[in-house]
Design goal:
Structural class: alpha+beta
Order of helices and strands: EEEEHH
Largest sheet: 4 strands, antiparallel
Number of helices: 2
Number of domains: 1
Bound molecules: zinc ion
Number of strands: 4
Helix content: 10-25%
Shape: globular
Distance between the termini: 12 Å
């Protein structure tokens, strides 16, 4: 399951960044997931974007939780 699928360390979502309105990217480091905008470089809490969750973010999070050691 390690890297054999399409679970990477980041996923492009369609959720608009709260700062610039462009699609934000979901990122992970170890078990920490956060949102990082590639356009304005702002970093946001995952929880702030949960209400707007799209398919990309949902799948990304499933991958994160499957990887739990
Ligand atoms: Zn932004």
């Amino acid at each position: 399951m390690w890297g054999s699928y399409r679970w990477g360390r980041s996923a492009q979502t369609t959720i608009p960044c709260k700062h610039c309105g462009k699609p934000i990217t979901a990122m992970r480091s170890c078990q920490q997931v956060y949102m990082q905008c590639e356009h304005c470089n702002k970093r946001g809490e995952l929880n702030d974007y949960i209400p707007q969750m799209d398919d990309a973010l949902e799948e990304f999070m499933e991958g994160v939780f499957c990887d739990r050691v």
